[in-house]
Amino acid sequence: MNPLFHDIFQKTRLLSKELNLVLKKYDLFAAQWTVLFCIHQHGEMTLTQIWKYLNVEAPTITRTVNRLEKLGWLTMHEGKDRREKIVRLSEDTNTKFPEIKSAIIRFENEFLEGLSDEEQVQLSALLNKMDKEGRV
């Protein structure tokens, strides 16, 4: 195994674990926050749009969205086609969102404090060059 992948996997697990600790105060997990943030950034979305954007299997997104709806984080309604489900943040979530986002930003800043702004841009560019299809 290429040591670079090992490092990426290890850092990803650590980030998820630490993010879950930050989100525990809000009774959320990192995977749930990812869905909420995605919908916040893009507005109303179908389940298909969410799983395609996040590169997550459809059943996983369906379970996560159903759970978030049950907990009051999301509302769902039918699209033009009754099979199409459109998801949006609940009013309560829109109220809580700025506080949670601030906690996430503090968390991110702590993890990035060892990197200069230039190094952060460079790391982002390098990660974006990695593509399964070999595209840059």
CATH topology of the domain at 44-102: Arc Repressor Mutant, subunit A
Gyration radius (Cα, Å) is 17 Å
Mean pLDDT equals 92
Helix content: 55-70%
What is this structure's SSE topology?
Elements: H1 3-23, H2 30-42, E1 45-46, H3 47-54, H4 58-70, E2 74-78, E3 85-89, H5 91-112, H6 117-129
Antiparallel strand pairs: 1-3, 2-3
Question: What does this entry look like structurally?
Answer:
- By secondary structure, the chain is mainly alpha-helical.
- Helices cover 66% and strands 9% of the residues.
- It has 6 helices and 3 strands.
- The chain has helices at 3-23, 30-42, 47-54, 58-70, 91-112, 117-129; strands at residues 45-46, 74-78, 85-89.
- The chain is globular.
Concise account of the structure shown:
Helix content is 66%, strand content 9%.
Give keywords.
single chain, 136 residues, mainly alpha, Arc Repressor Mutant, subunit A, three-stranded antiparallel β-sheet, 6 helices, 66% helix
